[in-house]
Amino acid sequence: MRISSPLSRRAVLRVGGAALGGLSYPQLLAAAETPAARRKARAKAIIFLHQWGGPGQQETFDPKPQAPDNIRGWYGATKTKIPGVLFGEKIPQLAALADKLTVIRCMTHTMKNHNSAGYYSLTGVAPPTDDQRLRDTLDLAPAYGSIVDKLAPAPPGIATFVAFPHIIADGSITPGQHASFLGKTHAPLFVNQDPNKPGFQLPELTLPDNLSVERLENRREILRLIDEQSDLLEQSLVAQGLDENYQKAVAMLTSPRFKQAFDLTKETPKTRDAYGRTTYGQSCLLARRVVEAGAKFVNVYYARSIGGMGQGWDYHGFRGEDVPARLRELLPIADQTLTALITDLEDRGLLDDVLVVWVGEFGRTPRISSNGGRDHWPQCYCAVLAGGGMKKGFVYGASDKIGALATVGQVRPEDLAATMFEALGIDPESEIRDKLNRPLPIARGRPIRELLA
Question: What is this structure's pTM?
Fold first, then answer.
């Protein structure tokens, strides 16, 4: 594992100011790197399932069956394999799998707009303002996977960070989906195709008929010669980044193992059916194949937009029967696909090595609004984790009798971020540097150690 350089200020403090006089800079650097280098990785990879739009805790992992109708909602609850713990009535397969899950019932923050809350969820960094007009800029924080690529990259020929099948947006593109100030070198391999469509493949990893591997290698040699002879190119960070991206692309193009991960025809019809013949279902199957091939962080976005039938979880702009109809579509897909992913990982002996994280940018209001739906509610919502060194059959935190506020525990997105980095063996106190060369912590919260097995 690598940590950021120059030397982390926090690391210096851990070494101790009194030691500075007796250590050379290389010795001090080695001493400071020790805490991060010795961290135990519980997981080799993370599959981050982002539920764009914000699923309601009442309909999923924190139902309130004894509450009044305008709070309880359209559905009841079902028993799980965890004694005394109920899930929503429409996710029975997950209820039967609850002994494999860690459920957080006390996620909380204050961002009520999709773009600002989405950015927070995807980076673990609170935006400067809760504004739906928050724009994607290089001043904002990078995605989790880009940080992993910076500090603990996958071997050559494997993309550390992969994202698909959408670029999410609410009016404007939601920040937090790329490398930001870390540079294009650490951007995700983004797949903007529907893996549920016949003939799905990854053009980025497919050689044109008239372009051989030898020609690619020759072009790489040409770039190397130009780089050696041009001071301007050598000093240009942009050009260096582009060159390194090209080197990565060549490595992936010539890596049969990684290319084959995107060939879903290698899976049996039974397996594909288990995940569900939907964009989301086949995306989660693809995520399993990609981490099996060596990727370390995968973002799967449930939907491209926040609303509309067949889209995301935003269900406050509907009236009457439109809301139950919408949920009758959303909930079975979520139930089938998450169950299939966790079961498949376990059957293949991968669940202990892969951490699955299911979370949206916020939850939904405890009370059903006058228009018949639930509005945005970041004050208390749920996240679900499975595998990757997390406890099994465990519920962390609790909400009040209507699911409005946390009464036990409190987990913010930055704490979930620190927990994920900890699971990968990356010191959450490691630092990266922004465009102005200022050191910034990769996580601004603390790992939730109660979740760790």
Answer: 0.85
